[in-house]
Amino acid sequence: MTVDRGTRPARRPVPTTRAHEDDLTPAGVDGGHGARPVPEATVARLAVYLRVLTTLLGEGRGTVSSEELAAAAGVNSAKLRKDLSHIGSSGVRGVGYDVSRLTAEVEATLGLTRPHAVALVGVGNLGHALAGYGGFAQRGFPVAALFDVDPALVGTTVDGVEVEHADSIPRVCAERGVTIGVVATPAPAAQQVCDHLVAAGVRSILNFAPTVLVVPAGVEVRKVDLAVEMQVLSFHVARRHGTVPAAGPAATPRQTPREAVSR
Ligand SMILES: NC(=O)c1ccc[n+]([C@@H]2O[C@H](COP(=O)([O-])OP(=O)(O)OC[C@H]3O[C@@H](n4cnc5c(N)ncnc54)[C@H](O)[C@@H]3O)[C@@H](O)[C@H]2O)c1
């Protein structure tokens, strides 16, 4: 759709030097019931359980067994029960989980009891598609602001939201109570955009640009990289075909993978 118009920014000093990406994030968020923090991997699965629960609620279901919920979420039921124990939810033997109550508990843990206004920066190919996807608003993440620097885009609308110049990020984000910023600019612009969002009080950033963002303590960054996901899939494909060497010093060309593991 559009390309970066040569607005490569000078790197500004940032408040701290902490490179904060999700894979470096120390595990855990407060479970909200005075228990131990909820591990990061569990948080990710809770979001999947919530998607299934929302569907069940829509179907008017009152209860669901751990086996059914686990199967629909693609995990085993022992893991599901352990995940839910982190948030203090336990099912009733022979009955299962109350769908409505479990939904509320998961939503409370994920901080979804109120909507989160989202600002998206970079309304190019990817940003335009994200901005036009109605599913975010349905799940509590309304797109409240769109920003770009391309004069051809500023002033246009996507799904009723006007694209504003990136210069207005601080003012607009503060006015609209933006809590989540999405960075969909080319990599060279991403840090400056991130800095503007942080300066506007945004504490959660979803980064699509292929670069590591440096943020102050207290700001969460999650990086989405579909190519990385495909590389992981590629690894599994290669392993199935036996073209990946067994890892680690114990593995020698003469060992089968099973031998290497069992040592
Ligand atoms: N994570 C993933 O899986 C994934 C997938 C596709 C693309 N991407 C990345 O997403 C980004 C966007 O890709 P695209 O194909 O939409 O590119 P694009 O060129 O179509 O769009 C980028 C937009 O950002 C705008 N922009 C540039 N500098 C800006 C600034 N300082 N402030 C605000 N807006 C600015 C441009 O005007 C343009 O509209 C790229 O970094 C790309 O590598 C990531």
Automatic annotation (TrEMBL):
Region listing for Disordered, in residue ranges: 1-36, 244-263
Locations listed in the record: Cytoplasm
Chain ranges of the CoA-binding domain: 112-212
Residue ranges of DNA binding: 48-87
PANTHER family: REDOX-SENSING TRANSCRIPTIONAL REPRESSOR REX, REDOX-SENSING TRANSCRIPTIONAL REPRESSOR REX 1
NCBIfam families assigned to the protein according to its UniProt record, in alphabetical order: PRK05472.2-1 (NF003992), PRK05472.2-2 (NF003993), PRK05472.2-3 (NF003994), PRK05472.2-4 (NF003995), PRK05472.2-5 (NF003996)
Known role: Modulates transcription in response to changes in cellular NADH/NAD(+) redox state.
Protein name as annotated: Redox-sensing transcriptional repressor Rex
Organism (species): Actinomycetospora rhizophila
Encoding gene per record: rex
